[in-house]
Amino acid sequence: MTDDRERWALILGASSGMGEATAIALARAGYRIAGIHLDFRAALGHVEEVKAAIAAAGSEALFVNMNAADDEKRAEALRTLAARFERSQADGRHPYLRVVMHSLAFGSLLPFIADDPKGAISRKQMEMTQDVMANSLVYWVQDLYRGGFLEPGSKIFAMTSEGSSRVVPTYGAVSSAKAALESHVRQLAMELARRGSGVTVNAIRAGVTLTPALMKIPEHEAIIEASIRRNPMGRMTTTQDVAEAIVALSGDGFDFVTGNVIGVDGGEFITG
Ligand SMILES: NC(=O)c1ccc[n+]([C@@H]2O[C@H](COP(=O)([O-])OP(=O)(O)OC[C@H]3O[C@@H](n4cnc5c(N)ncnc54)[C@H](O)[C@@H]3O)[C@@H](O)[C@H]2O)c1
């Protein structure tokens, strides 16, 4: 069956790494892009480059610089997207969010135990990490579903990592957020399926990938070394690997695939 609706992708974390590569790849595949990101002065030049790459693909970039975990900002961003959808509708088109990608990297990288309490994670840091990297998925999907942005065929992807079931000394808060995120994916997949929504939800477990978020992890050199040594395909994952997988999984034929953790890692996970 042909889908003549206007396909949009909402990328949470569109200005860097996996989100950036996927936004550009989806633009090249004919999607219009709504991008949420959190960037300050020094990084704004790069955001313009991402938007230019989307425009160069013949698409459109509706970007909002905001904290994706802020309820009021989320409501404001969705009003902006609804207004843009209304313009398409006025022109006789039928826009919908074919793809939603949760690709936010914003976590505390402190151990749980340290001799000096200042060197250990605080309640505030733990909750902020959980809120941005896991729980925000639920709040966005709640509003997107109620707001009518999701329709049969919509596909939601949340970026997870091996950290959901493995330990790294400074990754404790992010590990717990990834475990929660995978649980949220299962729950959303089940609830949306039971409603007959036609919306699927899956987690994408990328292998170790060179991005600004990876380089912030204090143990990144050891993580990179282990990735190259372990990966049966002999190299690290790239943002392009993730982008291509999401473009493919967003295509036709994946409507019965929901509630999974899908590895995009060249088999890295199975060697751990
Ligand atoms: N890099 C890896 O090795 C790797 C592996 C597996 C999974 N992941 C996951 O993939 C996702 C993306 O990571 P990445 O490596 O591409 O990171 P990145 O640092 O390159 O990009 C992160 C993006 O999130 C945005 N962002 C961060 N906090 C935000 C907030 N509060 N509100 C709005 N936007 C915010 C940034 O602006 C940026 O666009 C993360 O969930 C990460 O845990 C990364």
Provide a descriptive summary of the structure in words.
This protein is α/β, with parallel strands linked by helices. It has a single domain (6-271), classed as Rossmann fold (3-Layer(aba) Sandwich). Helices cover 44% and strands 16% of the residues. It has helices at 17-28, 44-56, 71-90, 123-146, 172-194, 212-216, 220-230, 239-249; strands at 6-12, 32-37, 61-65, 95-102, 155-160, 200-206, 261-264. A seven-stranded parallel beta sheet has the order 3-2-1-4-5-6-7, sandwiched between helices. Helix 1 (17-28) crosses helix 8. The longest helix has 24 residues, at 123-146. Nicotinamide-adenine-dinucleotide (NAD) is lined by residues 13-19, 36-39, 67-69, 103-106, 132-133, 159, 161, 206, 208-209, 211-214.
Count of individual domains = 1
Share of β-strand residues: 15-25%
Helix content: 40-55%
Output mean pLDDT. 97
**Secondary structure category:** alpha/beta
Q: Trace the largest sheet across and list its strands.
A: 3-2-1-4-5-6-7
Q: Remind me, CATH topology?
A: Rossmann fold
Please tell me how large the radius of gyration is.
18 Å
DSSP summary, beta strand count: 7
Distance between the termini: 41 Å
> Could you name the CATH class?
Alpha Beta
The major sheet is characterized as: 7 strands, parallel
* Low-confidence segments: none
Q: Helical stretch count?
A: 8
CATH superfamily: NAD(P)-binding Rossmann-like Domain
Which small-molecule species are bound to the chains here?
nicotinamide-adenine-dinucleotide
Return the CATH architecture: 3-Layer(aba) Sandwich
